[in-house]
């Protein structure tokens, strides 16, 4: 073993010198290193809090995204028809709004349903009954 160490004496000397310089440099920068470690600790705590607070909403969003993709997949023909007709409809709406930053048309009636806020784990959407306004103008009859 001493023979091998003796054959590599110059390299061992270089290693010891370099290691000494590294330790001296780290010692001189100990204040900056300590500040960086404190900053990293604060960052770690912030990221931990972010993940803890964001996990439940993110999981609910991912679950909802799964339900949406399943709904879109089950209604593929309707989605394809909508996408096929969309350019024509947007062009028509664009012509309606071509005179300014408004759309000039008359709404005869509005119907719809309003979602009820529920616990995301129930996975069953609830809606308030049909809401809307029936046609009252003679031109809409």
Describe the structure.
The structure is a single chain. The longest helix is centred in the middle third of the chain and has 45 residues, at 30-74. It contains 4 helices and 2 strands, in the order H-H-H-H-E-E. With 141 residues, it is mainly alpha-helical. The chain has a two-stranded antiparallel sheet. It starts with a helix and ends in an 8-residue tail after the last strand.
Extended strand count: 2
Distance separating the two termini: 105 Å
Identify low-pLDDT runs.
none
- SS field, number of helical segments: 4
Strand % is under 5%
User: Which series of helices and strands comes N to C?
Assistant: HHHHEE
Sheet of most strands: 2 strands, antiparallel
The dominant shape is: elongated
Tell me the structural class: mainly alpha
Radius of gyration: 34 Å
Task: Record the strand order, biggest sheet.
Answer: 1-2
- Mean pLDDT reading: 82
Helix content: 55-70%
């Amino acid at each position: 073993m001493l023979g091998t160490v003796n054959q590599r004496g110059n390299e061992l000397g270089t290693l010891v010198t370099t290691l000494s310089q590294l330790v001296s440099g780290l010692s001189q920068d100990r204040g900056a290193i300590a500040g960086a470690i404190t900053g990293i600790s604060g960052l770690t705590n912030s990221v931990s809090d972010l993940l803890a607070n964001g996990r439940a909403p993110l999981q609910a969003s991912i679950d909802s995204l799964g339900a949406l993709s399943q709904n879109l997949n089950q209604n593929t023909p309707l989605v394809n028809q909508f996408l096929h007709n969309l350019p024509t409809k947007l062009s028509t709406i664009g012509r309606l709004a071509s005179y300014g930053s408004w759309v000039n048309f008359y709404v005869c009636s509005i119907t719809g349903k309003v979602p009820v806020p529920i616990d995301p784990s129930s996975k069953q959407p609830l809606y308030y009954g049909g809401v809307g306004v029936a046609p009252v103008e003679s031109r809409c009859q």
